[in-house]
Every structure is written in structure tokens, then in C-alpha cells.
Amino acid sequence: MKKCSTFEDFKGKEKPLMPIYDYECADCGVIFEVMADGQGHPPVCPSCGGKQTKKLMAAPAIHIKTDGSTAGIEKRVKDYLKDGKISEATRFADKARSMVKSDKVKRIADKLHEKTDK
User: For residue 33, what pLDDT is reported?
Assistant: First the structure.
């Protein structure tokens, strides 16, 4: 089996990437996902145990995670704090929270409020 680059490579370990396929059971009609086993044998249905399963045509799942705005907000807040401008950092984080719907931005603003409310 050909090894593919993964995050594990950076930690000194290499892990093969295995594709996930959708199958449908001819007996009960349930659709399920199975990680490829490399053997090429159709899987057994997890619902009814039927052996009459067929691979379905499916688009691959893709998740692209890019959030440059959150990183920029975090950097700017840190810069304000380095300069000792806590009220400016809090004001900026509050404005960013209202414009960028991100859990990380919300946590940054909440943490600043916790520190300034003490």
C-alpha cells in the first residue's frame, strides 16, 4: 500500500490515508459508509448483516478551512495588549465580534472582558 503524507508525518510517524466509500444494501436499503479495506470485497451491511451491498457513486467530502480574519484579529488584539492599550484591545475585539461570527473571536472578546471587569 502506498503511504501518503499526513499530519502524522510531522510527528515522525506515517499513516496511510484510506478512502471512505458509500454503500447501499440490496436487502434492507440502508446506505452506509465504509473505510476501504484494500481487499476489494464488498462490506456486510451493518444494519441487517446482508451481503448484497453495492458501492454508490458519490462526490468526495471536502472541507476547506481558511480563516485569515480571525488570525488577523488575534494579532491586532495582541499588539494592543503589548502596547498596554487594554481598552483599545477590548473595543476592537467587541467590534470584531459583531462583524466576524467566529467562536475564537468571541472567546477573545470574552477573555478581555473578564480581565478588565476584575
Answer: 85
Contact 45, 28 (CB under 8 A): yes
* Secondary structure string (H, E, C) spanning 59-101: CCCCCCCCCHHHHHHHHHHHHHHHCCCHHHHHHHHHHHHHHCC
Query: What Rg, from alpha-carbon coordinates, does the chain have?
Result: 24
pTM tops 0.70, yes or no: no
Extents of the domains making up the chain? 14-55, 68-117
Torsion region of 110: left, alpha or beta (phi above 0 gives left; psi -120 to 50 gives alpha): alpha
Q: What are phi and psi of 111, to 5 degrees?
A: -65, -40
CB 22 within 8 A of CB 56: yes
